[in-house]
Amino acid sequence: MKLFIFIAILTTIIIQNGSCGKLGKKVKKLEAAVEAMNNDLLAMNSQCFMGNVPMDESNHLDTFHNWGREFKVEFDIKVLSTFTTEWLNVFRMTSIQHEAKGLQEGSYCGKRLPALFINKAGYLHITSSISGGNCNHVYNFDYAINKEYHFEIIQTTDPSNVNTYTVKIDGKVKHGPIVNTEPTLFEEVHLYASDQYTGDYGTALGYAELSNLCITNLHHY
Questions:
Q1: pTM: predicted TM-score of the whole model, two decimal places
Q2: What count of Cα atoms within 13 Å lies in the side-chain half-sphere of residue 130?
Q3: 140 Cβ partners below 8 Å, 6+ apart?
């Protein structure tokens, strides 16, 4: 969308000036203006929880609309100690459609959009609804106790309309890009920290620190 806006404005100026020779400085100013506009749009479609994010049973942090095709979830995570419960949940984004069906349904579609868990074996477990089927795409990352990691979970669509899913850790791509052949838009998505279904998973409260969580919906541009 950013490129299309730039091209439209550039075409208008060319028509007004009659040639490309006079563009020079105007093009540079336009590039800066488009970049500023893009940053403003990002800010309008972002929700950030700076500092430590409170984690507790069924802690509903926020609700997002028209979520799932293009997004960015960014956060810092540090595991503080070992634990004996099989799984702990850090956060989970889930659609109201899936919540209405309940966990007895076989499909994971809309259940994790995405979600972050910690396994007692010593790895972070990121799962997200990708490419239909049971919609449970998984990436595991071995962590060190008391070491903070910066994660970015990104799903975007390129100019050729190919949707890809990528996980970055400390600025480096560690997983992907994975082509999502069935990107889905969910009408309403809830963000929990920790997971509301505590019968299956324990809360990460006391065992991990989640901070600087920023949720950005890229679907609108």
A1: 0.77
A2: 24
A3: 119, 123, 124, 125, 126
Residues contacting 217, CB < 8 A, separation 6+:
45, 46, 64, 66, 67, 70, 71
pLDDT per position as a tens digit, 180-203: 998 888 889 999 998 766 456 778
Q: Is 34 exposed, middle or buried (0-12, 13-18, 19+ CB in 10 A)?
A: middle
- With CA atoms as reference, report the closest residue to 105 among 134, 130, 128: 134
Q: Output DSSP code: residue 158.
A: -
For 62-88, how does the pLDDT look when each residue is reduced to its tens digit (9 = 90+)? 999 999 899 999 999 999 999 998 999
CATH class as words, domain 47-217: mainly beta
Return all residues near 55 (Cβ < 8 A) that are at least 6 apart: 90, 91, 193, 194, 203, 204, 205, 208, 210
Contact 60, 190 (CB under 8 A): yes
CA quadruple 135, 200, 103, 67: dihedral sign: negative
* Three-class DSSP category at 122: coil
Beta-ladder partners of 188: 65
Number of C-beta neighbours around residue 72 at 10 A: 19
> What is the C-alpha R_g of the chain?
20
Any idea where the domains of the chain sit in the sequence?
A: 2-44, 47-217
Q: Where are the alpha helices (DSSP H) in 18-159?
A: 24-44, 96-101
Alpha-carbon gap, residue 121 to 108, rounded angstroms: 23
